[in-house]
Amino acid sequence: MEKWTKKTVETDFKNELVSGKLDYQVVNIETKGNEHFTQDYQLYTKSVVLSLVRGGKEVKFENLTRVWEYLRSERKFCEYIKENIEKYLKEL
Description:
With 92 residues, the chain is an alpha+beta fold. It is 42% helix and 14% strand. The protein has 4 helices and 2 strands; from the N terminus they run H-H-H-E-E-H. Strands 1-2 form a two-stranded antiparallel ribbon. It is globular.
């Protein structure tokens, strides 16, 4: 999951990463200090979460729960991630 998400972000959104328009972070919720993410984003297992931040403040987030449906297809998984990131970028 992490590998395909990172690949999609770094391949399809390279310019957005470089410009700072998009930020990609991996967070281990078991690390001390990160426990709040479990509650903040209603997490119960590994997840991909999109967060829309404006003016330094999170205004919206989405847990992409359908990633589990596409774990057997890298193409479908990556398309799903890409489609949702594009949707969020349009809201900036």
